[in-house]
Amino acid sequence: MERREFLKHAALGTASLASPARSALGMIGANDRVNLGLVGAGGRGRLLMGLAAAIPNVQFVAVCDLFPPQANAAQQSAGPRCRTYNDFRKLLEQKDLDAVLIATPDHWHSIPMILACKAGKDVYVEKPLAYSIKEGRAMADAARENRRVVQVGTQHRSAPHFRQVEHIIQSGQLGPVHFVRVWNYLNLSPEGLGRTPDSDPPPGLDWDFYLGPAPSVPFNKNRFLRTYRWFWDYAGGMTTDFGTHRFDTVHQVMHADSPLAVMGWGRRYELNDGADVPDTLQVTYEYPGFVLSYEASMLNGHGVGAQGVGRKYYGAVGSDDRPHGIAFYGTNGSLFADRIGFEVYPEPRGSSVPGLGSNSNNVGGWRTERVQVTGEDATGLHLKNFIDCVRSREKPAADIETGHRSTIVPHLGNISIRTGHKLRWDQAKEEIIDDPKASSLLFRQARKPWDEILRL
Fold first, then answer.
1. What is the H or E stretch that residue 5 is in?
2. Which of 214, 237, 201 is nearest to 66 (CA)?
3. Closest among 378, 241, 256, 279 to 328, alpha carbons compared
4. Which of 20, 90, 277, 395 is 20 to 30 A distant from 252 in Cα terms?
5. CATH 3.40.50.720 correct for 3-156+381-398+440-452
């Protein structure tokens, strides 16, 4: 696309500012229909579409995807009144559009979201919020400057059982908590993604547009669709993809919003498949009052045990397996939580070391009660919260600033791994302190012509 033509399209993408959507004027009533558009119609996008369409008085009037099979599948689900686009800027020109769901690969979150805000549309954007920390700040600024409702897809915020976990920790029932552990495990060994040669893109796919702000490389099927997340060019691997949800929950439960220091280790030890994010990693975060340990493996799927009786987590390989989760270790007990519930395991009264007091024989009783609570994935509730806030103009459960701060955490972990440096973080300035090499990874210069929109 010629640069002049590109800038023309970019300007058109914000043209509706002159005649904003109903939501920009606060004119959507509690019972009025909300018209949605979908940008990114892959598996996750179509899941969001189905859940949102089930909310009363919600309809999809536009879908956009660069890959025709995905765009067509989404359009068929929405019905004949839904228009289909292969350029999100054209979608944003549609006058009857109130809000947009963005479920693209990570490197395509910021530009559509910023232009949607400028076009007077509210936005639900999948996690991680942004490809880089400075992109996240630009997105938060765009939402604030244009007075948009923006929900980040960290759906744990809408889960009732995680609010119960927050109450248990904040009420002191678990005792003081100074250590928190987060983990994500899956097994891609021995071949990982497998090696595949570069080739021509599938028919109908504009590969250069798909790359967008990312570096120009030949088409390779491993860089496309679900496996894009294992390449630094488009995402941040396990840490940003899976970790972001759980870092956000740690912030919610511990009433924290920023680490003070970060140190991480990791590399691609075993998987020799052309991808470049670590297959094994560990990151330690220092917060005011507690230490957070994050670990991830692509070489083993077990994670930890302590799964509740009769409950099986998605991706589990054993009856007692918990491949993803969060553990809060208090002086009164330990709390293990994931998307489908949580358990509290009490500590014995006195010391648990034989010879220093009560031990596992439980002579003195327990410091708290054994608890097991069943929950479920809250994506549908999270979307409903977004739609409610589009109508009411209230702040959603995972508003843009909340999502931005939670997404900073995995990005800092990856920066520490990639540089080998211990990082000190200034949250007020959103700066890494006295480390030019690490600071250079706070952003990436967008490839032309997208740099005209994403100026960092």
1. helix 3-13
2. 201
3. 256
4. 277
5. yes
- Residue ranges per domain, the chain? 3-156+381-398+440-452, 160-379
pTM: 0.92
Structure tokens at 53: 């369409």
State how far the Cα of 308 lies from the Cα of 342, in Å rounded to an integer.
8
For residue 365, which of 343, 350, 344 has the smallest C-alpha distance?
A: 350
Tokens representing 362 are 């439980």
Q: Which residues pair with 344 in a beta bridge?
A: 335, 371
What tokens appear for 441 in the block? 């990874």
Residue 425 CA: distances (Å) to CA of 201, 251, 256, 260, 263: 41, 16, 14, 5, 11
How many Å is the Cα radius of gyration of the chain? 23
Separation of first and last alpha carbons in the chain: 23
Residue 134 token pair: 């400075």
Quote the tokens at residue 167.
């109450």
CA dist 263 and 255 (Å) reads 22
Contact 377, 154 (CB under 8 A): no
Between CA 307 and CA 296 the distance in angstroms is 18
Tell me: domain 160-379, CATH 3.40.50.150, correct?
no
Give me the helix-helix angle, 68-78 and 43-53, nearest 10°. Answer: 10
d(CA 17, CA 24): 9
Q: Do domains 3-156+381-398+440-452 and 160-379 have the same CATH topology?
A: no
